[in-house]
Write a structure and sequence with these properties.
Low-confidence stretches: 1-44, 325-336
Number of strands: 35
Radius of gyration: 27 Å
Distance between the termini: 36 Å
Shape: globular
Strand order of the largest sheet: 5-4-24-23-22-6-7-19
Helix content: 25-40%
Structural class: alpha/beta
């Protein structure tokens, strides 16, 4: 089906005709353009007299949707879309509709507990909050006195990402970590895309807001499955497709639900996305389809690159010093700007880039005896290695389809949208850099109809809130924790970690190689986990603290894939002894002797975060306004890099990155010549080469379920009715060759671990690929777990967990070796 054209005449009303609050799972699968119920479907009914409603929101890092919580007798009875609401509030996914079930989960953690037995046994003793906090503070004070502040580590995730929530290193718990100068463990997840794109644009995520997607002539999705993973992103695109104004092209090894809606689907070999992009760019340049005007005016394509040092030729190299752009006088050397140099074809001389009348896009020459060539030529040298035939060999995409895709990429208004699958390989940063470079090469960025990348808007709250004492955490990557726990050293300094505090995270099942995590985890003396549910990480804790659900606190939704900041109101009280992240931080702070920095109420802190933020002051956005208006747009333009202006040294995009630095630097050995221009490196495991491929011939990939967001709220019984147990999808040809029957139990395995799950025949899965849904806990498997098999391999530049870069094999359960 690669490269095939397909279109459906199926409409919303023809597909769905329902008035209930939940759409059946079967109705959410199939052909045609697909959307959730819109506000014109008659789903809004009058509120019963004994029932109230309030505005709440999801605090996960997808869209931060808002919706209505219907409350009766102090209990949430329904969650529903907002009538006439903002773009992120008029429709809801299955996860959002069922979120109230986590509040009333019969297995919810309601009281502080301490371990009774060995870690992992699951035996607990209920204790009081006084005992829990006293124990934590006593141990932390002892560790700090003997080993220093770095001995206490803090691990956060994306479980509660509102302004006062602990997710994404926020809220009072993040503030506490800074005050105590803890060691912050960077979770190294989904970082490669933004890091690679930042080499080009100075900003890692630069797609326009989703509401503008209808301005694109075509949308090209790379390793992205909107329909299942990001529902609120899908329906604006579905609207545009239904109107006939926008076409969809999907690049994905597997025939995903989103691919089934596309006009063109391109199936490439897993991990080959950077090579495909390089081949596309090479074809564009060879056929003179690149945007020369954009390259000359909005990128550093004309900058001269020294061939002896691979650095940009600058004014100081020529003995020319300039105080500022366009000014050759020098009065104060401390203010000198060392301008990049270009070759001006009109004057036939080397001049400052902003002084050239006609800068040369191409050319190799000597300037003051220094051999140079343009940044554009440096890029072309690399692109020239990727002919159509060579690219086809690497990617297993036909020459014709590569040519078609290259032509599509060079014509019209284009949104290139990246998911997190293509970046989840050892070469993930190369994918991000190549995708961003393609947009610069074709000039498809900075307009309503053209953009590239992922998308992330954040209402930047008052930064002073996070560091009241002017002290900060010390950051280490989770991928270095094995070495740190073995040596007590990181970056040549002492890091004697003795205690770990985990909040809004579940590293034991969402990190890379859970068996390796367990090894370093068990070398830590004292572990505290704050959670709602008995996750894999809770299972291996020493103290467990029951935290409040996001529906039980007032907070501010500061992040989104739309430029909005919104309120999430407190719908109900927390049950039993569950406490908010803020209250947990306050209790610990008092016992640690720093309570003076945590004395304000949540309302006072929200005013500090919102009212006193730069955007709050500039746009008049306050907590009081949010309480009335519920959701406020703070960027009506909604266009990233409008007019082709980038947050770089020169305001231009860098198709040549002069200095490539690692995402996290601990003095690791790096190749100084790597990464100046996009390139392609083979994945670490997911490639048919060497002994690993002979032993484990399948690429093991994951996908997001409609019923789970990572591992959050995994005990939702409504969603378990739809997806009751973990499965693995396998192409029937691969299954039959291994005597695996459809719907039978199988064992997935590699050198790191194994998992026993049910195998499902799936023609939409590429041969040689096994694909599993994310988010399952150890207790849900017959044996093992998917996270056992993922890898903690660390690319020294990207420092990112490569969840898709995994080799594995499969056999019928019980067959053995």
């Amino acid at each position: 089906m690669s490269g095939s054209e397909k279109r459906s005449n199926l409409t919303r009303r023809g597909l769905l005709k329902a008035t209930g609050a939940t759409v059946g799972a079967a109705a959410l699968i199939g052909g045609g353009v697909l959307r959730a119920l819109g506000p014109d479907e008659g789903v809004f009914a009058e509120e019963p007299e004994d029932q109230t409603k309030c505005r709440v929101g999801c605090c996960w890092t997808c869209v931060y949707c808002q919706y209505e919580a219907h409350v009766r007798d102090g209990k949430i009875v329904k969650l529903s879309p907002i009538e006439g609401g903002s773009p992120r509030g008029s429709r809801m996914c299955l996860r959002g509709r069922s979120r109230m079930r986590a509040v009333y989960n019969p297995n919810r953690i309601l009281y502080p507990m301490k371990r009774a037995g060995e870690r992992g046994e699951g035996n607990w003793e209920r204790i009081s909050w006084d005992e829990a906090i006293s124990t934590i503070a006593s141990k932390w004070k002892s560790y700090r006195e003997e080993f220093g502040p770095r001995s206490i580590a803090y691990y956060w995730g994306s479980g509660n990402c509102a302004a006062l929530g602990s997710g994404n290193f926020g809220g009072l718990l993040g503030r506490l970590a800074n005050v105590l100068e803890m060691t912050m463990v960077d979770y190294c997840t989904d970082m490669a895309l933004g890091y690679g794109m930042a080499r080009v644009a100075g900003d890692g995520m630069f797609r326009n807001g989703a509401s503008l997607i209808g301005n694109a002539d075509k949308v090209v999705m790379w390793g992205c499955n909107f329909v299942d993973a990001w529902w609120q992103h899908w329906w604006p695109l579905a609207d545009a497709m239904e109107k006939g104004s926008t076409r969809l092209i999907v690049v994905d090894p597997n025939y995903s639900t989103t691919a089934s809606k596309a006009n063109m689907w391109v199936s490439n070999r897993p991990g080959s996305d950077p090579a495909l992009l390089l081949g596309i760019m090479n074809y564009i340049v060879e056929n003179d389809l690149h945007n020369k005007e954009f390259l000359l005016n909005h990128s550093n394509a004309s900058f001269l690159i020294r061939q002896d040092t691979k650095k940009i030729l600058r004014a100081s190299d020529l003995g020319i010093l300039s105080k500022e752009k366009g000014d050759s006088s020098v009065e104060n050397a401390s203010e000198i700007l060392d301008s990049p140099i270009v070759w001006d074809e009109q004057s036939q001389t080397a001049v400052a880039y902003d002084a050239a009348v006609s800068p040369a896009l191409s050319g190799e020459r000597l300037v003051h005896g220094i051999p140079v060539k343009t940044a554009f030529d440096m890029l072309c040298d690399e692109l020239g290695k990727y002919s159509l035939e060579r690219t086809s060999e690497l990617t297993e995409v036909s020459v014709d389809d590569i040519r078609k895709l290259a032509i599509e990429e060079s014509e019209g208004e284009i949104w290139n949208i990246a998911g997190y699958a293509s970046q989840a390989y050892d070469n993930g940063a190369e994918f991000g850099q190549a995708l961003a470079t393609l947009a610069i090469l074709t000039g498809t960025v900075g307009r309503a109809g053209s953009c590239v990348g992922g998308s992330w808007y954040s209402f930047n709250t008052n930064p002073a809130f996070m560091a009241p004492t002017g002290t900060f955490v010390n950051t280490v990557p989770v991928l270095s924790m094995t070495d740190i726990m073995d040596s007590g050293q990181y970056a040549g300094e002492d890091y004697p970690i003795k205690s770990l505090f985990v909040a809004a995270a579940n590293p034991m099942s969402s990190g890379g190689s859970s068996n390796e995590i367990l090894e370093w985890w068990n070398k830590i003396d004292f572990i505290v986990v704050s959670d709602l549910q008995y996750s894999d990480s809770v299972k291996y804790a020493d103290i467990v603290l029951p935290c409040a659900h996001a529906l039980e606190v007032e907070d501010v939704l500061k992040g989104s894939y739309y430029p909005y900041v919104g309120i999430t109101e407190k719908a109900v009280e927390s049950p039993a002894e569950a406490k908010s992240d803020s209250d947990i931080a306050r209790l610990i702070s008092v016992e640690m002797g720093v309570g003076e920095y945590f004395e304000k109420t949540d309302e006072e802190y929200l005013r500090e975060l919102v009212d006193e933020s730069e955007l709050g002051l500039e746009r008049g956005i306050t907590l009081d306004r949010l309480r009335v208006e519920k959701d406020i747009c703070y960027d009506e333009t909604d266009i990233k890099f409008y007019g082709g202006v980038f947050p770089t040294e020169t305001g231009r995009a860098n198709i040549y990155c002069e200095t490539v630095v690692p995402r996290i630097d601990w003095g690791q050995e790096l190749d100084p010549d790597f990464g100046h221009v996009p390139t392609f490196s083979l994945p670490n495991e997911a490639w048919p080469r060497g002994e690993v491929a002979k032993k484990y011939p399948f690429t093991l990939m994951s996908h997001r379920l409609r019923t789970r967001w990572h591992t959050g709220e995994f005990e939702n019984e409504w969603m378990r009715e739809i997806a009751p147990e973990p499965i693995v999808k396998i192409n029937p040809s691969d299954a039959i060759a291994r005597s695996i029957e459809d719907n039978s139990y199988v064992e997935l395995f590699n050198e790191r671990g194994h998992a026993v799950v049910r195998a499902i025949y799936a023609d939409d899965i590429r041969p040689g690929v096994l694909i599993y849904p994310k988010g399952w806990q150890q207790c849900e498997f017959k044996e093992g777990g998917f996270s056992e098999m993922t890898s903690a391999h660390c690319n020294p530049f990207t420092v990112n967990t490569s969840f898709m870069d995994v080799a594995a094999d499969i056999r019928p359960w019980g067959q053995g070796e």
